[in-house]
Amino acid sequence: MAQKMTDEEWRAFVSDGTRTGKLSTVRADGSPHVAPIWFLLDGDDMVFNTGKDTVKGRNLARDGRVALCVDDDRPPFDFVVLQGRARISEDLDELRHWAARIGARYMGEERAEEFGARNGVPGELLVRVTVDKVLAQKSVAD
């Protein structure tokens, strides 16, 4: 039987290794848009970057509501869904810092600065989402 994860458990789960998130944003017509993202937790915020002119970037600028799903698709199956409202920054120093930290998580520390330089540029957005709601289940198939 599925069990609710504790705060400590879900934070460890979404931060483990290179798990990507599936981010849902709201299109102009109200329909959902889902895209995979690299992200980090920073306290009660999830942090990621995206291009200003991407579907995600345009959606977030118009309507900051988001949901992020992170899952383990192997038995016994675990998942976490985080919901909140995005805040966008174009501050290049902050963007470069977080792009490097995110790059380190997914590509290794040795490539962190490369990703900071690549993604910490004009036209990119730093997105910070304060998590308002968490649905976190472990051992769904047990």
Structural overview:
It is a single chain. With 142 residues, the protein is an alpha+beta fold. The protein has one domain: Electron Transport, Fmn-binding Protein, Chain A (Pnp Oxidase, Chain A), CATH 2.30.110. The chain is built from 4 helices and 8 strands. Strands 1, 2, 3, 4, 5, 6, 7 and 8 form an 8-stranded antiparallel β-sheet that branches. α3 packs across α4. It is globular and about 50 Å long. The chain starts with a strand and ends with a strand. The mean pLDDT is 97.
Q: Can you describe this structure in just a few lines?
A:
The protein has helices at 7-15, 55-62, 92-107, 112-119; strands at 3-4, 21-26, 32-37, 40-42, 45-51, 65-72, 78-89, 124-138. It is of the alpha+beta class. The chain has one domain (3-138): Roll (Pnp Oxidase, Chain A).
Q: Any idea what the shape is?
A: globular
Give the biggest beta sheet: 8 strands, antiparallel
CATH architecture: Roll
Helical region count?
Answer: 4
Map the helices and strands:
Layout: E1 3-4, H1 7-15, E2 21-26, E3 32-37, E4 40-42, E5 45-51, H2 55-62, E6 65-72, E7 78-89, H3 92-107, H4 112-119, E8 124-138
Antiparallel strand pairs: 1-8, 2-3, 2-6, 4-5, 5-8, 6-7, 7-8
Question: Which short descriptors sum up this protein?
Answer:
Pnp Oxidase, Chain A, 142 residues, globular, alpha+beta, eight-stranded antiparallel beta sheet, 29% helix, 8 strands
